[in-house]
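Example record for the data management plan.
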Amino acid sequence: MTQRLMYYDGKRPQAHVANLVANVQTGNVGIGTASPSRKLEVSGSGTVAHFVSDNNNTFIGLKESGGNFAFLGNQAGTFTIQTAGDNYSDKLTITSGGNVGIGGNPNFKLHIQDATDPTIRLTDSTNDVHLDLRADDAQTLVRSTGNYPLLLN
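Corresponding structural encoding:
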C-alpha cells in the first residue's frame, strides 16, 4: 500500500504532496516518482539531488552490512573518495583543475603516491603480459613480464 505524505507549513497540515511517496510495506521512499523501487529513489531531469554543508568539507557516507564505510566528498572544490584505514585518508582525488591523484594530492594530470614502491601496471590478460612502471627508494623501474620482450620504438 502506498501512502502519500503530507507537509506542514508551520500552521497546519497541507494537501498531499504528489511527488513524495512512502511505501509502508516496502519501506521505500520516492521523490519525483510514484513507485520507488529502492529505499530512496530520487527521479527527475538535470540535477536531482543537492547536498549542502555549512563548511568546506561535505561528505556522503556509504556503509555496508559489515560496518565498513566509504565516503564521497567535496573538500573545498576537490572531489575525494575515502575508505577505512589510515583515518579515512583520501584514496582518490580529482581537483577542480582536472588533476587526478591516487594516494595523495595530485600535482600532475595523473599522480600516484605511495610510501612503498608506487607502481602502475598495464596488463594484457589474454597473454598474461604486464608492463610495470615503478619508483622506489633508490631506483626507477620500467619492466615487462611474461614471455614477450619490452620494445621501445
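Summary line stored alongside the record: The CA atoms of residues 61 and 71 lie 5 Å apart.
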